[in-house]
């Protein structure tokens, strides 16, 4: 209850971004070490999966040394698109924390704390948790990270509403928003095929997606993403990855989160990336779009 009442006081006061900035002082402290780059746009011409003519200006800074990079990024995209997979790979590559609000919610849910049963009901119906609760969980995570000396972040699953985006914008500058896109036919199958290692949290997929070319539309093949042997016996399925709940989550994305794409698009921060297939095919193209290189991937691909 104490958590709930503190949150509701904070978010009641945070009806405008400025009020939010004053209230979430811990969020501001955690988010402030990096300054933002300009949000101006330029023409983009690489053949790498991008469908936008806008190239966020921050991409020009990515070939700098890690310490000089701006990395305050957000991943957007429908449930099942692969935000967790690519955010976690980028997190490993850049040494920047990957913070998935869905993971924070699931941790809270598993903790049997005061919010646990309330969250279980909301999440298992595919609905969104209130802004109050989600911002409280995120603030605590950022605060804990700050105490450990973390800087920068790759957010996955936040913001999911325009109000969340406004609150975030009120306390820090997001450099880049990567909007992952995947053909609708593949999204449901990807969610239903998702498996999580109950021990390490690794994300895998048993679905083999093979969409045939039709009516001038190209086919698409996405190989399964199998777990390594040490995770194979520990796989679990998320309670909200059932067909009914995934369909509800997709509807909620359209209604509540699609406007967030517009919010960032109009600010010149949105990098739209059409996933051309599975991880093997998409990862190098995403890196190319981000002006990044992954030596380890290059070596394993060449082997
Ligand atoms: P995800 O793992 O991102 O699919 O999130 C799982 C569930 O956690 C969502 O269906 C929501 O119920 C909740 N959740 C995660 N992030 C947010 C957010 N930013 N706002 C509201 N609810 C969220």
UniProtKB/TrEMBL annotation:
Keywords for this protein: Kinase, Nucleotide-binding, Transferase
First-level EC class: transferase
Entry GO MF terms: kinase activity
CDD domains, A to Z: ADK
Keyword Acyltransferase carried by entry: no
Catalytic activity as recorded in UniProt: AMP + ATP = 2 ADP
EC number: 2.7.4.3
A Pfam match: ADK
Subunit note: Monomer.
Protein name: adenylate kinase
Taxonomic source organism: Gossypium hirsutum (Upland cotton)
